[in-house]
Amino acid sequence: MLSLRAKLGPIGFAYTCAAPDTEQTVETAWNLGVRSFDTAPHHELGLAEKRLGAVLAQYPRDEYVLSCEVGRRLVPATRTFSLEHGREPGQNLRLVRDFSQDGVLRAIEESLHRLGTDRLDIVYLPDPDEDWERALKQAAPTLAELRDQGTIGAFGVGTSRPAVLSWFVQESSADIVRADSSAVSRLLPIVRRGDLTMVATGVLKSDFPATSDLPAAVCQAHGVTPLEAAIARPLRFPEVAGVLLEMRSAREVTENVRAASARVPEALWKALAEEGTADKG
User: Fold this and answer.
1) What pTM, to 2 d.p., does this model score?
2) Are the C-beta atoms of 17 and 246 separated by less than 8 Å?
3) CATH top-level class for 2-280?
4) Are the C-beta atoms of 263 and 235 separated by less than 8 Å?
5) Which stretches of 18-110 are assigned E, i.e. beta strand?
6) Would you kindly state where each structural domain of the chain is located, as residue ranges?
7) Dihedral sign for Cα atoms in the order 242, 243, 249, 251
8) In this predicted model, what pLDDT tens digit does every residue of 151-206 receive, in sequence order?
């Protein structure tokens, strides 16, 4: 897990939109040192996985971390979806919730096929509280077995709810948690108790030019931008290995990577605490 942590941070690329300029965007991320890529079957009904996998195929597989999700499978639909957000013509698929053992195995097989790879480094169970019993009793043990077999490198849970994370710490052998930045501080005691690695999402609160919920005036007074502070905020905790950012263009990648390299003074967190915002991430 140490090598996985080293590859994860500080910035990961959450690929959610199958944009036509995927190759340029991923190439920019790679050239700037990003080595963590995250996607899911429900992003553009599988098209995001296909496009990301096609671009990543040109890079050495051992040099990056690839994460995905199970629990939401694509199955044939009764009607054909209209073209939007780059969907392929005649794409007649729909999403179903499925945390069963068979559903997990099928979902991983399908994602491996769409991504064009032979393994996934991290597999997440997103929002398992919607079907917590099957997630804990079927999905988690199945992922643990696949991890032990080497089909996946690690598995974890995607949640921002302390009670849900506590279930997985107590009842499973999960390795990692992916949570919204606003929940990081609330989850830290459980993360420490379970010796988990943590990845933060939801760092940015709007589209590019990226902004956050941090007071601009306070950040400016300490010589940093809200974007720089937003990325640094969860990373100040050693349990947080990295942040996942949605980046839809080479320009966004460049700006976010630059922001991640900025030095953020400790005095900023004290000032934000006085504003009541420092502990939200």
Assistant:
1) 0.90
2) yes
3) alpha beta
4) no
5) 36-38, 65-69, 72-76, 93-97
6) 2-280
7) negative
8) 999 999 999 999 999 999 999 999 999 999 989 999 999 999 999 999 999 988 64
